[in-house]
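Q: Hi! First time doing this. I have a protein sequence and I read that you can turn it into a structure. Is that right? Here it is:
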Amino acid sequence: MGTHIEAVWAQVGNGRRKATARRLADAAARSCFALAGCKPSDIDMLINVGMYREDNMGEPALAALIQEDIGANLRQPPTGGTGTFSFDLLNGGCGAITAIQVESGLLKSGVIRLGAVVSSDVQPHLSSSPGVSLRPSGGAVLLDWREDFAGFTDFAAETFPEYQDLFTSGLVWQERHGVRVLRQDAGHNGMVVTVQPGYHARLADCAEEATRRFLRRLGLGVADIDLLIPAPSAPEFLDPLLARLGIPGDRVAYTPEDLEGTYTTGPIAALQAAVKSGRLDEARSTLFLAAGPGITVALALYRQTAA
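A: Yes, that's right. Below is the predicted 3D structure, encoded as structure tokens:
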């Protein structure tokens, strides 16, 4: 028995309207639920893991707005009934795996019956970060509990703070000089993202170390993993990681080209590729791996049958 992936959806902005994090998350959630044949009102918990929004906004919490947009139990539930509990969980590129871990625990306990994880990012308003770009995208995963299915069995997360300065981002006030008519013309906040040389190499180092430690704890080796679902998809991270772990390319779910460059949607995009190809169903043991600034590495093991 375990947490089962009922449906997954990932997409990029369609270009017809301005891509906003809220719209992208809404669209991904609706498509995911439609794929599973369920209604938004069926969702007991909705976790938003998106990070970067238009105009560098940090508030309000986006999960509640997504819940409102898709119509997931907007009224007070009846006595003894259940509603939809929603909140934001911000853990960068590792957020999707972290949220799946949270919902897995609640599914196992019976507190919820159906959980959703949604993501979305748009290109932030950058002040001075040449070469840094994010592909506007949204994703969603629908989870339920199956008595006859192993599903997600184990999770792990590690942080390597000694490398925290290799990737940093934050808001910096940019004062506007010259004649100003309105008070709000004084300036604006700009996002500054700094990526130091060697970041992706250290990312691969940490991911390898955390992966080997995780598998060793479970009594497994790399050879026991039939499929790897990794994020990010950047070749400067993924290529050295696969070489160090000794995982051949035919055991990797690669992110489709149109979804490369996504951030919090990265793990969901790679998962969608595995589902569409049928490889997730074929693999006995699947390893989810996400790595990002911090440096933080998140891992999850997904099994078709109990060990």
